[in-house]
Design goal:
258 residues; mainly alpha; 9 helices; rod-shaped
Length: 258
């Protein structure tokens, strides 16, 4: 009589796996950005006669003169930095303990010797995404070995199914919040462009209002335009470097899993 065993649910990586509710990171970064804009950039000490209405005396005051778009860009910058740290911690957990090439070599050696207990212990010690996927495949293999009444092709299909289920369980953790980083790459540039246009509008409005041009008002508009351009470019730069770096690490880890 055929006997079968129910496959155990694949084990997911232990430790920090990422922040699922990224909206709270954005909210926190927005609050931090507004506070930074008001109390650091807007500090009276950054302006002549300690009055924010006057000309700035340093770079902080100049950035403050960028206008209301500055807190938005700072929010994007802080979010990019926060998500970069979050992804670094999550991928550190996903890669597990020790070097993956050495882990894979040890697994192959244990399987070559037919020592499945050693292979399973290596997975339990390594942890991480690759170890969990390999461990799920090993458990499925042992279950199929103990199962009678099934054809070899069916057993192979069950093992492959366990491998795919474990992979599908791990992959979302690796990709979590990456779309937000990718979006910030574009939003940083677009917000910078918007701030630049607003600053130029103010500059031309100053020219139209005075006829010959009020140099103070004109400089404020140009400063707003250039500050927003520079800060937006910086934000996009941070976001694109972080996005490409972590995408590359995820691709490498995915290759080990497959």
């Amino acid at each position: 009589m055929a006997t079968t065993q129910k496959a155990a649910a694949p084990k997911k990586s232990q430790g920090f796996q990422g922040v699922q509710a990224a909206i709270w990171i954005i909210v926190f970064c927005f609050i931090a950005a507004v506070c930074f804009y008001m109390f650091v950039l807007g500090n009276p000490a950054n302006f002549k006669e300690n009055d924010p209405a006057n000309e700035p005396t340093n770079m902080l005051g100049t950035i403050y003169k960028g206008g209301i778009v500055v807190p938005v860009i700072i929010t994007l910058l802080f979010t990019a930095i926060a998500l970069s740290v979050e992804r670094a911690l999550a991928l550190r957990t996903a890669f597990g303990k020790g070097k993956l090439p050495k882990f894979v070599a040890n697994i192959k050696e244990a399987l070559r010797q037919g020592d499945f207990a050693k292979a399973q212990k290596l997975c339990d010690d390594q942890k991480g995404t690759v170890a969990n996927v390999v461990g799920a495949s090993l458990k499925a293999y042992k279950e199929m070995e103990a199962t009678t009444g099934m054809k070899k092709a069916q057993k192979v299909a069950k093992i492959q199914q366990a491998h795919e289920e474990a992979t599908q369980l791990e992959m979302p953790t690796l990709q979590m919040n990456m779309p937000i980083l990718g979006t910030i790459v574009t939003l940083g540039t677009l917000t910078a462009l918007f701030g630049t246009v607003v600053g130029m509008i103010r500059s031309f409005a100053a020219l139209a209002a005075t006829g010959g041009g009020d140099s103070a008002a004109l400089s404020v508009g140009i400063s707003e335009a250039l500050v927003n351009t520079a800060s937006g470019i910086l934000t996009s730069w941070v976001a694109v470097v972080a996005y490409n770096y972590y995408t590359n690490k995820i691709d490498k880890l995915t290759l080990w899993v497959k």
